[in-house]
Specification:
There is one protein chain. The chain is α+β, with helices and mostly antiparallel strands and 317 residues long. The chain contains eight helices and twelve strands. The strands form three sheets. A six-stranded antiparallel sheet has the order 1-2-5-8-9-10. The longest helix has 21 residues. It is elongated and about 90 Å long.
Length: 317
């Protein structure tokens, strides 16, 4: 009876371990977890990875024939339990998790061009195939893998080639960085040992991506505040997206009219005048601004900025 009870307990424990394999306990790891996050325009790119150390080992090199025989084709040899002394940790020609522990995860909120090739917005496991020449960078749709052991090339979203660079500086810890950031692009760099592997990421349509984020911003903002749609409209207008701009300006005007009807203040009237000018309604904008000056002076507020703006509007064509 006691042995049956003990067996049941063991089976229950094994079941619990299996069920929680994806939620590992927060105990210290030899390869610590890290994340690099970068905004490019309005797009957020992030890389979640673990950081193995060199620890005096040979990292990137050709696999000896005995080692290569343990895997077919480009299948991973990323199993430290099988490594023998003198074998490289990351052999050329085989899929590698591009980090340690779980497969590295690459995420982007918007469509990108990676080394000029399209990658849709989403979350991907990032793998690499090191080589003596160009490396293969792989974005795979299965983002929940442990290492590259269950890697399936049929689930690849994109493969691109990248040229590794020899580095005079030694990087003991595997490190990802996102450098050379501009309004629409950046360079992602993997650095480990004395090797750097850069590849470029470019936002496919910065304005379109930002318009999409502005839709979310306006939808989440206070439904009575004209400020959110006014700001969105200003961006759309500045980037010649006039149809989107006018939709937002009309939304802002309705909210502004409700605010002015509730309470006439210089601030509310000045905002309304700005919206009307954006809609091409100059006469109405001037009228609202003039009323704002009157209300502001009655409240003993500083109306100088509004008066200067009003003068410019009156002179505009």
């Amino acid at each position: 009876m006691r042995s049956k009870t003990f067996l049941l307990f063991v089976l229950m424990c094994l079941g619990m371990v299996g069920a929680s394999a994806q939620n590992r306990p927060p105990t210290p790891r030899a390869s610590q977890k890290a994340e690099v996050v970068q905004t490019i325009g309005s797009t957020q790119v992030s890389i979640l990875y673990s950081r193995p150390l060199v620890k005096g080992r040979t990292i990137f090199a050709t696999a000896p024939s005995e080692m290569a025989a343990r895997a077919k084709g480009e299948a991973t040899l990323d199993n430290s339990m099988q490594h023998k002394e003198g074998e490289p940790l990351v052999p050329y020609g085989h899929v590698w998790r591009a980090g340690a522990n779980e497969a590295t995860v690459f995420s982007t909120t918007d469509d990108l061009l990676v080394n000029g090739k399209p990658l849709p917005a989403g979350k991907y496991s990032l793998h690499m195939i090191p080589a003596n020449g160009e490396w293969t960078i792989i974005f795979n749709k299965d983002d929940g893998q442990w290492g590259s052991f269950s890697y399936d090339a049929a689930k690849d979203a994109l493969r691109v080639m990248a040229k590794p660079e020899a580095s005079s500086a030694h990087s003991e810890l595997l490190t990802y960085s996102i450098d050379n950031v501009t309004d629409d692009s950046a360079t992602v760099v993997l650095a480990w040992d004395k090797v750097r592997v850069p590849f470029t990421v470019q936002v496919k349509d910065v304005v379109g991506a930002t318009i999409g984020h502005l839709r979310e911003f306006v939808a989440a903002a206070d439904a009575n505040d004209p400020g959110a749609p006014l700001a969105a409209g200003n961006y759309a207008k500045a980037n010649k997206r006039n149809s989107e701009a006018n939709v937002w300006f009309e939304m802002a005007l309705k909210r502004s009219e409700a605010k002015v009807a509730q309470k006439e203040t210089m601030k509310n009237l000045a905002q309304q005048a700005t919206i009307l000018m954006n809609l091409g309604r100059k006469a109405d904008a001037v009228k609202a601004a003039e009323r704002g000056v009157v209300v502001g002076k009655a409240a003993k507020e500083d109306t100088s900025n509004l008066e200067k703006q009003l003068a410019k509007w009156k002179l505009s064509s």
